[in-house]
Amino acid sequence: MKKIALIYGATGQDGSYLADFLLKKKYHVHAIKRKSSSLNTERIDHIYEKNTKNFFLHYGDITDPISVNEIIHSVNPDEIYNLAAQSHVAVSFKIPNYTAQVNALGALNILEAIKSSKKRNKIKYYQAGTSEMYGKVQENPQSENTPFYPRSPYGVAKLFAHWITINYREAYDLFACNGILFNHESPRRGETFVTRKITIGLCKIKLGIQKKLILGNLYAKRDWGHAKDYVEAQWLMMQQKKPEDFVIATGHTHTVKSFIIECAKQLNLKIIWKGKGIKTKGYDKNGKCIIECSKKYFRPSEVDFLLGNAKKARSKLKWKPNFNFSKLVKDMITNDYEKLKS
Length: 342
Ligand code: NAP
Ligand code: G4F
Fold this sequence. Notes:
Blueprint: E1 4-8, H1 13-24, E2 28-33, H2 45-50, E3 55-59, H3 65-75, E4 79-82, H4 89-94, H5 96-115, E5 124-130, H6 153-172, E6 175-181, E7 184-185, H7 194-206, E8 213-215, E9 221-222, E10 225-226, H8 227-238, E11 246-248, E12 254-255, H9 256-267, E13 272-274, E14 281-283, E15 289-293, H10 311-317, H11 325-341
Parallel strand pairs: 1-2, 1-4, 2-3, 4-5, 5-6, 6-11, 7-10, 8-15
Antiparallel strand pairs: 9-12, 13-14, 14-15
Helix pairs in contact: 1-8, 3-5, 5-6, 7-9, 7-11, 9-11
Ligand G4F binds at residues 87, 89-90, 130-132, 182-183, 192-194, 197, 215-217, 220, 222, 256, 297, 299, 302, 306.
């Protein structure tokens, strides 16, 4: 019999790749979309157009326990992936209460619905945890055993979701696991996250349709991987006999500035750097300033450095990423350049 998966967050970057991945594995995929005043299914439209037989869309919202219960009890899934979130760290400082409703209590709503389901011991649950929980890092590199120290309302809310997942696993014997995923990007990445803002900005500058790219902290370091590799890891965690938590990361870290430099290299765009810290500026070959920093994009408290240790996933899940840093940049740059050119 075909397995049934339910994806919260299916209209997002990871949810859309996960839907592609599970459909290839012959799952029946049920996907949740939110009511929105404009179309929000761009990332899954390609599926809907050609694979309607195994793909089902439902309106829902993770903050509404009535809808969460109704969907879980009627779909009767084998696997539930909770990828739904207010996923922007900077925005979480502006809407902390809302971020907690979605990122923390949303997870609890799903776990409660599983607990009250007749199939409760058969349903597997995946919680989309994050390296943001390490925040002010207490150890390098960060593994499953590194203590957490979140630095944003986003990170704090995700830490609640992490621990409530463990608590429901221990208290009610649910198959509930946490992925602790480091940053992962792709051509489907939201346009306000730094990597996509850079790939779009530099492609537009190269094509002469944007003059300047204005960013925040260029010296923060992130362990960036590709979303396609990371959704495979999510699925692998759900295929284990016992639920456990796993760090997913590449084991390499780069500054935001290095990300810009790699993009510029692939676009054959020369940048001459001058100044330090917030005064750092990038100039083109004619001496025109094309990159500068603004306080507007700095956060009240920053996560300066992230570097993951995914040894456990590599050995137990046999997971290994196919994309390295330059392949990731290439995928994003190629996609944005082609799209913008046409
Ligand atoms: P994303 O592109 O921002 O997608 C978030 C998804 O959640 C969207 O489908 C969004 O729907 C949905 N959503 C938001 N609020 C909701 C609500 N109240 N009810 C139902 N759905 C809701 O994020 P992503 O990059 O794919 O990340 C997926 C998950 O992994 C998130 O939980 C994120 O926090 C976590 N994570 C991401 C990374 C990363 O680097 N990408 C790393 C670690 C963990 P709309 O399309 O309607 O907005
Ligand atoms: O791309 P970012 O916004 O990602 P951030 O904050 O690391 O969060 C992402 O990864 C987390 C995993 O660690 C996920 F849980 C979370 O959902 C999200 O997907 O920012 C990356 C870095 C930060 O240090 C930020 O200060 O880039 C710096 N940055 C510099 N200029 C900027 C900008 N970030 C954004 N968004 N926009 C800028 O102009």
